[in-house]
Amino acid sequence: MVSHPSPLATVLAAASRIVLGKERQIRLALACLLARGHLLIEDLPGVGKTTLAHTLARLIGLDFQRIQFTSDMLPADILGISVFDRETGVFRFHPGPIFTQVVLADEINRATPKTQSALLEAMEERQVTVEGETRPLPQPFFVIATQNPSHQLGTFPLPESQLDRFLMKIALGYPDRAAERALLEGADRRELLAKTAPLLSAETLLAEQRRVASVHVAPALLDYLQALVGHTRNLSPTGLSPRAALGLLAAARAWAWLAGRDHVLPEDVQAVLPAVVAHRLGTPGEPRDADVSGRALIEAVPIP
Questions:
Q1: What is the mean pLDDT of residues 65-70?
Q2: Rounded to the nearest 5°, which phi and psi values hold at 95?
Q3: What sections of the chain are H helices per DSSP?
Q4: Which of 118, 106, 112, 81 is nearest to 96 (CA)?
Q5: Has domain 1-206 been given CATH number 3.40.50.300?
Q6: All structural domains of the chain with their residue ranges
Q7: 194-206: per-residue pLDDT in tens?
Q8: Confidence band, pLDDT 50/70/90 cuts, at residue 222
Q9: Homologous superfamily of 214-304
Q10: 229 C-beta neighbours (distance < 10 Å), count
């Protein structure tokens, strides 16, 4: 057990005062950020998806941009475009909203697959290529995408290549009765968030991400992780990819660090497993229950 300073615990506590009754989802979202991943939140409108994204960006002190995805949006609306400057006689690049530290891709599945694909390079390489020129994105760089359930009108399913770029997928769900009562009796969440001061800085977050990457993983733990991944490949030709295995390991390290440990336990892998694997398994376009698929995988593979 390590006794590292816990600015992250302060962030978790502050976020839980704004997004009520969702402590586990907040912890998963922060673990996703610490693991240098991207987060997909699928749920009904009005349950707090956008509020959670705003809250994390505010508390961690990162620059934030929201992109409202629509069916008529073009890739240039996200990445930016070069405009001819008559005074200088040259084209000047106007960066799009992707050039920020936290991007909220709101209702991402309302855009066409062509527009969705504009995020692929940014999410994987932390850079974008526009008109033949590659431009780096700010660091840290974190995409939080929200999507409505696929059965709703006007949605386009995310391709598997896009889904695989998200380290985690979570759902918020309705608040329990006590949390909803506190929400009804309390201050407006937007007003509360506006009065909240950042608790971290970008530099502090980058340092925490480096520490997470050095959390110890024993060979026996890697055996367990490989057994989990191998089981999905035995069940289906579209089992977990090497990218998914690396993501699961990174998420487990982040979960252990949030728990105050400098080493990973099997319980850390199990805690993040449903959020990491559910959107990568099953039939594309069909609803996937993260808890059900994750629990079935945990029960099927014994700890070495």
A1: 91
A2: -65, 145
A3: 7-18, 23-34, 49-60, 75-79, 113-116, 120-125, 160-163, 177-185, 189-194, 202-213, 219-235, 242-258, 266-277, 290-300
A4: 81
A5: yes
A6: 1-206, 214-304
A7: 888 899 888 999 9
A8: very high
A9: Magnesium chelatase subunit I, C-Terminal domain (1.10.8.80)
A10: 20
